[in-house]
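re: that complex we talked abt at group meeting.

here r the seqs, copy pasted straight from the sheet so there may be weird spacing, ignore it
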Amino acid sequence: MMDVQRRALLKVAAMAAAGSAVSLGNPFPNLPVLGADDLPETDKLSWKKAPCRFCGTGCHVQVGVENGRVVAIAGDKAADVNKGLLCVKGYHVGGILYGEDRLTHPLLKRDGRYVQIGWDEAIEIVAQRIFKSPATFAFYGSGQWTIPEGYAAQKFMKGGLGSNHIDPNARLCMASAVTGFLATYGVDEPAGCYADLDECNVLIAWGNNPAEMHPVLFSRFTDRRARGENVRLIDIGTRRTRTTDAANDYLEMKPHGDVAIALGIMHLLIENGNYDKDFVQKHCAFRGAEATTPTLQGEAISESEFRKRIAKYTPELVEELSGVPADQIRMLGDLFGNRNLRITSLWCMGMNQHTMGTAVNSLVHGVHLLSGHFGRPGDAPTSLTGQPSACGTVREVGTLVHALPGGLLVVKPEHRAKSEELWNLPSGRINPTPGYHTLQMFEKFCTPTNEGGDIDTLFVQVTNPGQSLPNLSKLIDGKVGLEDKFLIVSEIYPTATTQLADLILPAALWVEKNGMYGNSERRTQQWFKMVDPPGEARDDCWMTIAIAHRLFELGHDGMKDKDGNFLFAVKDDAGNEVPIWEYEHYYDINVDKHLFEEYRKFSVIKHKNLAPYDEYVNARGLRWPVVEQPDGSWRETMFRFAEFDDPFVEKGKGFDFYHSTSGDGRAQIWFHDYAPPPEVPDEEFPMWLCTGRVLEHWHTGTMTRRLSPLNRAMPTAYVEMNPDDAKAANVRQGEVVVIESRRGSTELAVWINGRGRPPRGTVFVPFFDETKLINHCTLEAHDPFSKQPDYKKCAVRVRKLSKVTQ
Amino acid sequence: MNETGQRPVEPIVGEPDSELDSAGRITTLALASLMAFAVIGYFVGLADGVPQPSGIDSEPLLKGTHHPAKADSKVVAAVTYSEISNVPMGPSVAWQAIPKSLPKSAHEVQPYDLFAEIKPSESDKEKSNFVRASRRAFNGAPPVIPHTVENTNDAACYSCHSNGMRMEGLKASVMSHGFLANCLQCHAPPPPKPFEKIDSSVRSRFVGLQAPKAGERAFPGAPPTIPHSQWMRENCHACHGGPNGWAGMESSHPWRTNCTQCHAPSATLDQAIPAQGLSMLPPIENSTRE
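got the structure back, here u go
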């Protein structure tokens, strides 16, 4: 038997051996080398399924566990999403548990220093602050919350405190996709699924670099070429990327050009008369924004009015607005005009982190609806998500300031009543006014109380706003020096956010706890706890329940249901309450299952039906709506709104958009006028700045920066520059320069024509590096409907370090 | 070089000789510094990172009047269309000479003999195991790329790694799985050129699964079982045979091609039998809409 100590010794020996290998000429000794003398212990190894911890693709991995530690990862061959393949992050996901600086004890800031405290004290501190002033407490969550974690936080805030100040980091990543779906179909989330990638003839990446960001999905498509299939990839982007390397066509657009391109395609479809008249007549309606106060509802317009408005978006005007040559706009128009092709559109942050995010999302849906490239396998407008449960936890559980579980809204009295009924709450408990969305929440928190900053206690779980918010100088740094503000951060490692925290709570991570995630294609996934968290680290869901129970003990009425019982009371089979608020008893029963079974009742209200928990235990995820069959089995749905697959579409109808905003089963084809970006380069700040990710690192790098193979491949953030811009600025490869905007600055090494190749006048910076925070430069200007900020375009300048600012 | 792959800085000036008087010492130091500055200055000048013309476009490719190239020059002589069928095409003589001028690898000196007797060596195996392990976070992880990657094109990877190759002490491993697009999706490259010197070390307590040393034999002489998963390692000969496999891991019978006929794989490692039945879907061709 190999104990932990011996393994550690082995590792030391291996590192020494690796060091000595250097002299033999191996220049890459960073990986831990394992002793070759030991016999295999594969018989002790057990393999269990889990979804990957990283992006929204939702690959399943097989986790190899030996002696209570994760030692290996394999792609799950039984998983429909990834069919056994992973990306470089997924293969190394097991290592995220074992960074040496894992947080293992609650830490309280006292006199400028952190001191270890016990969990009882930590929970008491949080509960007392909330008890004293529930209205000034806000909960900032995450698309990496598991479904039960998000559901518990949601119920705690909206059902318990009667407060809607709960919002997730997904506000920064997919809020515009949500509003795009709502505006178009009246209900959120894609109609298609990943099978579209297997069926389409043409794949269009709209401001999207799936080769690096969703590599498993990307190679699922490009591998078809290797099998001899004739597929066409069109890359519409603001810089050349690895996706461009594999693309048949590269359409380089100016920032915001996507709006014009979508309008141009619709113009051509109308002009050439090759839109799908039958489909549009039967299943679509036209819509435009109200003249005075635009809403997500918009107002109905006639087809002739739509024609009138779209008439000016000729390929020539689109070329002027987008920079894409008119003949390429015509090429796109012809593709969409050809009903024999199957066309799938993919997008992610490019269209979502956009001050016209809702508009451009709606327009791309409109292109597919107008052309009839919708509802057949391979014909789909598909939005991808960046987080593993942005769909599952944020969009479906509704952990947003305006939402309730299952797609319900706080502003609708009947939705509040239904939620109160399902939660067994006294009527009127749920607050009808949406709370502070992410940007407002942090602005209020960082504003002194006497100047209107009416959030004074902020609980952050499973996310790192200190690095990921835009305009950090304003939205995070403002907290420094505000004595009455109290920041609670539940984290696994020290981050840019824990630096500012008053109380740090050590969290359990991924397979250290039970969990459920929901991926980009409506697939709900489940896993079981496999190893113990280190030290005193505990589940985020437990933290919420423990705080709620302490409030219950203190006599907070909100923590009681109509009958005076604890909000999160869980009973065992014998009918006895299990004290799940005591961590020793948290795993006496499957809390995830209890919360999920309660949450599931919400899912049937808007046809987002979920199966019982146990069905997910046996599956590699199931795509909702999952509907029970006469034989008692549960059937998932791949294609929504289409009769051939969606059980909620009446036979003979062909299509039914059963949550249509016009109430007649029709989807809305929107018209939005092009508007320029909020900040464009000028004399003072002459360059466009685009931010994003690289293949090897995930979001703020908290996890991937602690994985050797990944950090070796990309050890630092950089600024990607066009060679001519570098020459003009007289900067060299690798030289450290200052990138500055009107809001802040950061120092970065120059990578001329780096991972991507930006056109002249554009620089790109990845945001993973905690030592080089590019979000000091970014803009908090946001979409009016989704409140999602635009990280993809603002004006900056590149200054040589030696040059002093005027 | 140290553990992080950085070269320790060599002292430019050695310890001053104690017998030298202080004036002499100062002179030596001053001279040495001067020389060092000059040398450093020269190289800094050379290594200026500003994109410079690489030389090829600084002067026109074709100078003066056109004249026919000599037979041994680097340029293939232009011919008329009527002559094309009679002229040997392909790599020029100069181009062909490049690989020929490299020292020959062992297999070129002595061509690979499929039927030669093979006696795998334990020490070779240990060495191979060590190199393989040094490129993986755990057994089964896709190996990281041990060389710089300038080109992200799959064809570039495939040109060496499809069948593997050896050249001047270097070995390009054979792909153990079938062709998959987007190689860098799974195989992490080394740091980008401008950031090579940046310390990328991480502090981790992760200890990966070890590579198995050997399969199990039911009795001496029985064919051993396959001790690792076959997933992504479908091509047994990538490691266990052929001229470009791993030393010490060779099969003693490389001419046999149906490996699993005798060597049993592991159903557990291969995820061969799902623990539970998977839910089935109706075929998606059911679309009624055209």
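couple things i noticed - The helical segments of chain B are 22-46, 93-101, 106-109, 122-134, 154-161, 237-240. Confidence is low (pLDDT under 50) at residues 1-20, 44-69, 275-290 of chain B.
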